[in-house]
Here is the input.
Amino acid sequence: MTVNTLELKEISKSFPGVQALSNVSLIVRPGTVHAICGENGAGKSTLIKIATGAQSADSGLIQICGDRIDHASRRTVQNLGVRAIFQERQIAPDLSVTENVLLDRLPKRFGRVDWKNAKIQAKQRMDALEIILDIDTPVRNLSVAQLQMMEIARAVSLDARLIVMDEPTASLSRHELEPLFRVINKLRDGGVSVLFISHHLDEVFEIADEVTVMRDGVVVSHGEISEFTPASIAELMFGRKVSSSQADRTSQGDLSQPRLVIDKVCSNRLNDVSLSVSAGEIVSVTGGIGAGVSELARMAAGGMLKSSGEILVYDDSHESHAISSRRQALNMGVAYLPADRKRKGLLLERTLSDNIVLGQQAAGSNPILTPRKVTESARAIAPSANIKAANVDVVVGTLSGGNQQKVMIGRWMGVSARVMIFDEPTAGIDIASKFEIYSELRRLADSGVAILICSTDFQEVGQVSDRVIVMRSGNIVGEIEGSKATEGRLLEMEMSK
Ligand SMILES: Nc1ncnc2c1ncn2[C@@H]1O[C@H](COP(=O)(O)OP(=O)(O)OP(=O)(O)O)[C@@H](O)[C@H]1O
Ligand SMILES: [Mg+2]
Here is the structure.
């Protein structure tokens, strides 16, 4: 009889005011990829934190490779061959890629770190995933997508028995997944099991053997992937049918009225980039790692120095203002949502309402904020960003990953901005909420805002934009109308010479 890699029996867990898990059972068989699907806040991360000893359950049983684990700690579970990539990034920003990849497993020789060997090992892990990165560089210089790749390199190894991946792909573009999937297939062939969480159902169907669907802390369905379709999983996740109802894309954009103009901008990474976004328009920029998409977002928001070129924002009387700092951009009504919400965005220890009104404070649009106004304002905004929380006084750090991301989006929804720049707006957000956010973005555009979206998600840019601009290695390589921007077409443009 084969022994299951992981068995969770009737796991329950509550936090003050929230029953995060109720009697959840799950079995991961050896050499299989098991996906967990569920909307934001369904309890996926809590479940895998319990399975990996990062959090303790209130009740229930954990068995790893047949051994019953009574007091699971990260260390005991790791010693049993379980590796995990958590949704909250685990990195030491000042250390190099080599140190971060090998972390607590740096090879030693005569009691000292064997650097030569460490670098070889780190390089081998990166090569297997086809990741090209300078292994001596401190990881603080890496982009969100590169960090994600690095964490994958840390977790995947054939000496593991179970690898848990909580949204490993949230900011990777489609073709960057292929090496990851090749590695997962190799692991599976070697008998390693993978527990995989993703809001991208196409990935789930591509890689998973089995799937467990959760809703509000309970398992609502489980089976082999062949028993499901994307639509049936979505229906189970949300308890209703989810249609990918396209937000109406009849742009109200007045192309004679540019709001944001990026003119021949060059920097370390960007090479002669020009584009403009008009009032009422949604323009997306897409591309893979190293394309420079994220840099462009930051640059356009005034958050990064350029070596030449100009960024101009036009005011209501069509006068242009050159942007040279983030503060100045804010004064001109440029809202910016960075991709890295943990490092650059959220005050995790503060309440939901404090975090939401930050946008209004920064933009100076609501200077006198009494505590009552803060609460009222947050209550008004939270639903439009689809934030699921018990109330607006909860501490943001206790929200699920996707709900934290929605707080970032919500922050800018209460601000009357001229230009909004979103870098990876819906990374980690469940599909139903995505569609609602797309409609909300369209509503903002229709009210006259110029919106620039930087995203590696081809489906997203195809769904939400009037125009899509494709970048590679710091250059713009093509532009296409939003309605024609299918995944296939975008991939072709990105790869074309
Ligand atoms: N430390 C905590 N304190 C209080 N509540 C918490 C804590 N951690 C999680 N929760 C709550 O437990 C529930 C489940 O959260 P969890 O992070 O497991 O969701 P998830 O399925 O991973 O969602 P997502 O797709 O957004 O990542 C949520 O209601 C969340 O607010
Ligand atoms: Mg989660």
